[in-house]
Give the backbone structure.
Amino acid sequence: MPREPKKQHWMEKISRSGYFFGALLFHLIIFIMVGTWIIFPAIHPPTEDFTKTYLPPSAPPPPPPPPNETVPMPTHAAPSVTTTITAPTATPTFSVPLPDLSPTTTPVNAQPNMTQAVVSKPNTLSDARLASIQKTEEAWGRTKENILESNSDPKNVTAKFPVYLASYARGDWGCNIHMMSGQIDAGSLPNLVTKMNEWSHGHITGYVVPTPLNIGGPDLLDKKPPFIFFTGHKDFILTDQEVQNLRDYLQIGGAIWGDNCLAGRGSRFDVAFRREMKRVVPDLDKNFEPVAMTDPVYTKSWYPIQKLPPGMNYYAEPLEHLDIDGKLAILYTPNDYSDLFYMHILPGDQVMAGDRPNKKTGDPLFTNGGFYNNRNVFFRNFELPSCLAAQQLGMNIIGYMLVRFDKDLLLTP
């Protein structure tokens, strides 16, 4: 039988293959070439400088001086003069040159590049501003005689004025009112103003203008209301025209009453309102400050208040104010009192009205049924005593805004 050919081993096949040796030679050449390249040069540490600067000296430190030996102490002011420290048994003597403390006066013009610190403006009203404020208050029905007789006491004020809800860009400013065809027909602001008119016994008469006031238009400066009511839940950014109109409005005697309808510090409206009002009043020396409980808004008005009434969900953050020339310009109530105004309290202050307006008589006042029915869950503190206290605080605030310039106006001709 013929013998079967023996199968070659794979090593034998490779050793007889010309391709293998060719590839091996090619890779060997590549390895030798690449192996001679210098990719990262060797790092040689400094020798002399490194040893002198960073390494500790080889010799041990000198021994401390004996107790009676004096050590010279050079000074920068007078190198030739030395201060000696003697042994504890001797009285130490010091020879240190005294600095020159004589005052020097440098002309301002000699240093034009010096940065001057911000200096607070004095809290005084200019004659021009007082004249514009006087014209503004005349639109509220405030006469010179009434300003004199009132003695800065809201209980003695006689005035008739419009109350506006501020309409502003990119905000839910209508969050606590009811509107029909673009007109306010019910809600928190009408409830508050109606109660204020009742409590003042006709001395002051406010009336809610049904059309919200667009603060970016000309009406803000033309109508000259004592204040505008500024509220909402959301973040917002005022337009440049709105900022300028508000700034001009404050200068002629107007005021901004901001109420946070999302109660509490750090809420979306709280952050936005503080930020945007600082655009209106950008002076570095004018910032929001707490209203002290001894302020006239609590102590000198219709209702003496000794403890700040809590707002919606029992928030009781201090009220804050921002002044211009020492007079209230912006008042901020961060506790959502405006939703507590949404309770219609009947005359006598003991009974809450129902949650539906009286269509027969055209009375727009009513209590928000959603607030009342969920007062123990989502709208805590929506109770008659709390809503009554909030409306009394609201009346005090409006009264203070009417008289805050009286003492200054008495000095005008």
Summary: The longest strand covers residues 159-167. Residues 43-58, 67-122 have pLDDT under 50 and may be disordered.
